[in-house]
Prior knowledge:
Distance between the termini: 41 Å
Number of helices: 12
Largest sheet: 6 strands, mixed
Strand order of the largest sheet: 1-2-3-4-6-9
CATH class of the largest domain: Alpha Beta
Number of strands: 9
Strand content: 15-25%
Number of domains: 2
Amino acid sequence: MKAVVSALALLDELGADLPTRGDVRVLRDRHLAEMVLDHPEVHHALSVSMMRQLGRAVLDLAEGQESALILRSTGPSFCAGGDLREVRASLLTPERGHGMAQAMTAILDGLRDLPLVSVAVLEGPAIGGGAELCTATDHRWASPSARVHFVHAALGVAPGWGGAGRLVSIVGRGRALRWLSSSLAVEATEALEAGLWDGVSDLPLEAARRFLEPVLARPPEAVRAVKRQVVARDRSDEALAFASVWAGTAHRAALGRLK
């Protein structure tokens, strides 16, 4: 998570003269955390202050005890990307744009690599950077009216928060290239068929919570170790994750139940 720490320092510099807008809250219920975007007047677009809150939440969850995370907004949209007021006022130079891209890519990669199982819940559109944001979780559940719109090329830019690479890993190179180069909105049926959505429900938040029930039924230290193995870049990291739970309390209790 060193890259996230560096990202926060960079965002502190970029946002030094910007007001605080919007909120990113983390709610906790035993081993389930919910990260909630709250900036409804701009469809939950992320201000620089919200980007900083998101980064701090990622660092906090990395050191926590939760085994599952839901990422959602207060609705009805999911996220409209970056707050255009701040983009126009303070970030509209190649240098500052590069700084924001570096910071947000590090934070969203940190979110993806958290040692817990994460699900994005979309009850409405995910546009631009918001589409990139939903690629940073392990799973996604959506309402029938939700859509994902990588609108970047239509605006004369390209994804800046690491979303292109993450999208390729989820839906494959060909489909990712079509969605990114055409800037066409992807409706729920196509997103489900492509594997971007794990499921579609009229009540996606409730569906996501049910989806996570088997995860929450397992010892959180085991779930966090498994997730560390899944994202490990080095096989030695897998062995370390294994060793962190071997002969631990949950392991010994499970062995005691075997006959």
